[in-house]
Amino acid sequence: MSQHFDVVVIGAGPAGYVAAIRAAQLGLKTACVDAYVGKDGKPALGGTCLNVGCIPSKALLDSSKQFHNLTHNFAVHGISASNPTIDVGAMIGRKDKIVKQFTGGITMLFKSNKVTPVAGFATLKPGRVVSVKAADGSVSELTATNVIIAAGSVPIELPFAKFDNKNIVDNAGALDFASTPKRLGVIGAGVIGLELGSVWKRLGAEVTIIEALPDFLAAADQDIAKAAAREFKKQGLDIRLGAKLSKAEVKGDEVHLAYTDAKGEQSLVVDKLLVAVGRRAGTQGLLAEGTGVQLDERGRVVVDDHCWTGVEGVWAIGDCVRGPMLAHKGSEEGIAVAELIAGKAGHVNLDTVPWVIYTEPEVAWVGKTEEQCKAEGIPYKTGSFPFAAVGRAVAMNETAGMVKVIAHAETDRLLGVHMVGACVSEMVHEAVVAMEFKGSAEDLARICHAHPTLSEAVHEAALAVDKRAIHKAN
């Protein structure tokens, strides 16, 4: 006999586990089904983000940053060390310990909130029946008044560069190299490629990033993208734009690549190849016949502005629906849907979801780029300010980058705020709050910012929108 719940959530990533906890907080009997198995062979909550994405990558980024600072940046502070080395195994072990701490933390949160975890692969059947296939092959069924699909996403695999988890890897494989590869090839200069490429570059790898698009970070404001590209080039990241991979062949312990660029056919030999060309919705095998839930041409679950699928009691959130594939976007959708189910108001403004790339320097933004404003015919004005003119940045020896503010030319309403520099992953939220409250560039300009702080760059960029920055020529 199947168990009945008020809410069954499919997927325990940042969208699913947050939705489950919020639903339980609201007094709904809730279960959360997830198929992920950790390195120890046991079920692990948290999805891609916690197990092989956001959290472990940030752990390695921080470890590699410390080593790079020791070997390259500390001398200016009068700090020196002779022949420093890094134990890659210990670094990976630290990352794994952090992951285990957080997956265990979700287990405890489920327990304290009375969420029922169910291990196995879920398939939605008609009538809000969720069939669960466990690791041992046994099948059970849950029924629900409401089902929230939070199936997440999986790496896109290239047909001519299939993952073998040894020489050709996805993001998970690039988090677990036993040693620093001498030559690392990366396909895709997006968030994953840049972050993991940066990790191994700092530890001594020769990193070549091949990107098919002609523009670097096409989704970002191009002033910010160009500033970031200059810094990455200084660091020795070899980023080749307009380069389309056509072949990746493993020969012994090497991967031989063939690609074409503006100059014609090119070749490259690497020891490891990270394929990071994007992710697709993890909806394969998710829906049985007759559910009424629709998938779009990219395999994403079709939903309305409130994450409803159009089928009574069936919702979908996170990476498997429209909008940016970002953990925090999925979490907010999870909370919104749980509250809608409970009869409360729930809403997510996709226009104010912040984006962050955790490289050195970091890249962060919210809202429209200058290119989008031009394409949409929106009258706009801009102001920018470099970190090189910020006292705190100079004191930290972190002077790379800038802040750019875009406001409506007629109303002064903030349209977008874009940053590249130290700690901008934290600074961008001032802009998010201002935009959520329909703020203007003048609002940012009139707010007193502490001195000396990095956030003074936001203040000065807002002043620069009306050509009244204090610490640079306008």
TrEMBL record:
<dbReference type="InterPro" id="IPR036188">
    <property type="entry name" value="FAD/NAD-bd_sf"/>
</dbReference>
<dbReference type="InterPro" id="IPR006258">
    <property type="entry name" value="Lipoamide_DH"/>
</dbReference>
<keyword id="KW-0963">Cytoplasm</keyword>
<dbReference type="Pfam" id="PF02852">
    <property type="entry name" value="Pyr_redox_dim"/>
</dbReference>
<dbReference type="InterPro" id="IPR001100">
    <property type="entry name" value="Pyr_nuc-diS_OxRdtase"/>
</dbReference>
<keyword id="KW-0274">FAD</keyword>
<keyword id="KW-1015">Disulfide bond</keyword>
<dbReference type="GO" id="GO:0004148">
    <property type="term" value="F:dihydrolipoyl dehydrogenase (NADH) activity"/>
</dbReference>
<feature type="domain" description="Pyridine nucleotide-disulphide oxidoreductase dimerisation">
    <location>
        <begin position="353"/>
        <end position="462"/>
    </location>
</feature>
<dbReference type="InterPro" id="IPR023753">
    <property type="entry name" value="FAD/NAD-binding_dom"/>
</dbReference>
<dbReference type="InterPro" id="IPR050151">
    <property type="entry name" value="Class-I_Pyr_Nuc-Dis_Oxidored"/>
</dbReference>
<keyword id="KW-0285">Flavoprotein</keyword>
<keyword id="KW-0520">NAD</keyword>
<keyword id="KW-0676">Redox-active center</keyword>
<dbReference type="Pfam" id="PF07992">
    <property type="entry name" value="Pyr_redox_2"/>
</dbReference>
<comment type="similarity">
    <text>Belongs to the class-I pyridine nucleotide-disulfide oxidoreductase family.</text>
</comment>
<protein>
    <recommendedName>
        <fullName>Dihydrolipoyl dehydrogenase</fullName>
        <ecNumber>1.8.1.4</ecNumber>
    </recommendedName>
</protein>
<dbReference type="InterPro" id="IPR012999">
    <property type="entry name" value="Pyr_OxRdtase_I_AS"/>
</dbReference>
<keyword id="KW-0560">Oxidoreductase</keyword>
<dbReference type="InterPro" id="IPR004099">
    <property type="entry name" value="Pyr_nucl-diS_OxRdtase_dimer"/>
</dbReference>
<dbReference type="InterPro" id="IPR016156">
    <property type="entry name" value="FAD/NAD-linked_Rdtase_dimer_sf"/>
</dbReference>
<feature type="domain" description="FAD/NAD(P)-binding">
    <location>
        <begin position="5"/>
        <end position="334"/>
    </location>
</feature>
